[in-house]
């Protein structure tokens, strides 16, 4: 009978969380300070707006995007908030340390919180792939590792491959997807079919909750794509292009979903994921595209790829490799992210070829290098993290308790059969 | 219900219009007058427009945040969101008027965005008190309570701000602690013995708790705006945003940890997550614009999260049993205790010389004045509501939407279907079914 109950979290979760928070407070005490330079009211208000938009995306958008599982809504939303809070604190520190290389105190500006929130988003994307298969302690570990690796990767991108901040951030989708998939791979090996079929399904009302999250993500995606651009003109381009790419991908996704199904019915799960694909795909090149039709074309292709992935991947790819991707992260963020990376390389080559032929190979090398760096570091770090998470210390839930809120939550009012 | 509620509401709205007609004018008219007197004051309007995004954030918190936070009751979702909207709409008109009258000493009030933010703040006190009496009070009683509470709040705020000159930028004491203790006092007067054993309708279902989570997230996201909205200088605003942000993130971690610590077998409790994660924002309010450094804000947030969870676990049952105060939403743990923590934190911060704006004595006086006014005002309001305004006749109408709302389908059946469909696995027989 013992295995039917999930292991008690009382000993480990509070202890580790409190130790972690205490450690964070101590580190903040020694290594952080306010920004004492005088503040420009217009600039502060502008940065705060963007920070607010990004926070809405990560807290509300990602929280509810993943709440489509029938019995896992509470955990999706609440674990998301927890991971966000942890990820931001850690990312502020990591960003500050790596940027200023341990010499002086980390100056906390609004823009550094904005950057940290965006870095913490990588954890939330990966959490979509492992959703329902890990407990809070495992997710905490995953968040710490993932933020560290991601911030380090961005530092390498910037310092050694001379990428700008915006571009290295836009590889977040590819990185986080493959990280999450690898963790899910190591966690889902003992997943049996019965559990999956019984619990891994959506209900009507929770599908609506997921739609709430999707819509918030969709509305605020232009802010995300333009958040790290400083030149006003590039920023304007980014907003416009993202806007049109999202519109194109939404139309494509809905129509392709109807086309792919017998009797032309639309699948809600496809809509949740595929309408965001345009925003992901246009990310890396959104400040370079000068005409809307190019962005719309990119959005259209992203919608196609995403729907195609939603139809083919679960049956073939995931089944063969034994990866269980709960929320379809691979076709929501991964494939459109790859498309975006390739589109960026093509665009750069096209632009450069007007000026000089000799730089093409260099640009090609750099572009392909960063994209594959993001993918490779995601894969490797994901495998390693997955191995660690399978250790006994983490008190992983039994596979029969996957996708079930009951393992983590008290239901005083619903305890009928238990 | 058929006569009293529409009558009260319409009379109140007409008197609002009359009062506004006599006393309230736009800020632009004031500028026009000053320009005639050759005083250039165009920067004021610019500043006013800069505040608009902050106002919008506070507005979202009041209507969406507080509204959905209270939707956790199984049969009381319509009323939570609907009456929340009603009293917020009435409260911000009355708040604009009464605050203006107090600060302008009875002369014409020129309103700008800042007045709108302050009016929204005064509404927040009523919404907090509404959480304590949720489900046990009729809409007509709620309207009367709104009018009295905002008047008392404005008086207390005037005393704290103008006479004591205390610093309370995020209004932990004047809004949160005040609103919570006012609501508790009213709930204490309106207590019915039947509530002691627990009410059959006072429970949540799976999806009503998820709806409440929407409210929590909206409040959580916009709390930095709430605490920084009325900051005077840009430096203070920057400080308030950073401090609130770090207090909130630290509070989330400790709230989860303690929820797991006090739960059975280390399980989390949704009620704690919905409420205690916000306690950090409340507690840091008073000293948000002081130089407490991020770590100081994180310490305040952590303490608030712990206090809030422990309050839910141990204090709320005790309040109901011993003191006969039934607190539906647990506002004492979300706003009351963290508000007091905020007041104490500001005293400690001033002792450590984080701010020169106020003194220890004045902060303590402000805290005492807020609590005292709230409890006395709440008791009197409760007596008025109990004996002069018609309320709910029996406890069987408590926590039930169908008393006030036209529910086209039978609420009972829908909820039962809902539960059995979504939770087939919880019933024993379904374990053996295919």
From TrEMBL, chain A:
It is found in: Membrane. It is a multi-pass membrane protein. Its main location: membrane. GO terms for biological process: ammonium homeostasis. GO terms for molecular function: ammonium channel activity. The chain crosses the membrane at residues 12-34, 46-65, 72-93, 113-132, 139-156, 168-187, 208-229, 241-259, 271-290, 296-317, 329-350, 362-389. GO terms for cellular component: plasma membrane. Belongs to the ammonium transporter (TC 2.A.49) family. Rh subfamily. PANTHER family: AMMONIUM TRANSPORTER, BLOOD GROUP RH(CE) POLYPEPTIDE-RELATED. This is Rh blood group CcEe antigens. It comes from Ailuropoda melanoleuca (Giant panda). The lineage of its organism: Eukaryota, Metazoa, Chordata, Craniata, Vertebrata.
TrEMBL record, chain B:
Belongs to the ammonium transporter (TC 2.A.49) family. Rh subfamily. Pfam families: Ammonium_transp (PF00909). Residues 16-387 form the Ammonium transporter AmtB-like domain. Keywords: Ammonia transport, Glycoprotein, Membrane, Transmembrane, Transmembrane helix, Transport. The keyword Transport applies. It is a multi-pass membrane protein. It comes from Ailuropoda melanoleuca (Giant panda). It comes from the Eukaryota. The gene is RHAG. It is found in: Membrane. Homodimer. Heterotrimer; a RHCE monomer interacts with a RHAG homodimer. Component of the ankyrin-1 complex in the erythrocyte, composed of ANK1, RHCE, RHAG, SLC4A1, EPB42, GYPA, GYPB and AQP1. Interacts with GYPB (via the N-terminal); this interaction bridges the (RHAG)2(RHCE) heterotrimer with the SLC4A1 Band 3 I dimer complexed with GYPA. GO terms for molecular function: ammonium channel activity; ankyrin binding; carbon dioxide transmembrane transporter activity; leak channel activity; methylammonium transmembrane transporter activity. One of its GO terms (cellular component) is ankyrin-1 complex. This is Ammonium transporter Rh type A. One of its GO terms (biological process) is ammonium homeostasis. The chain crosses the membrane at residues 7-24, 85-104, 116-135, 142-161, 173-192, 204-223, 238-258, 295-315, 335-352, 364-389. The lineage of its organism: Eukaryota, Metazoa, Chordata, Craniata, Vertebrata. It catalyses: CO2(out) = CO2(in); NH4(+)(in) = NH4(+)(out); methylamine(out) = methylamine(in).
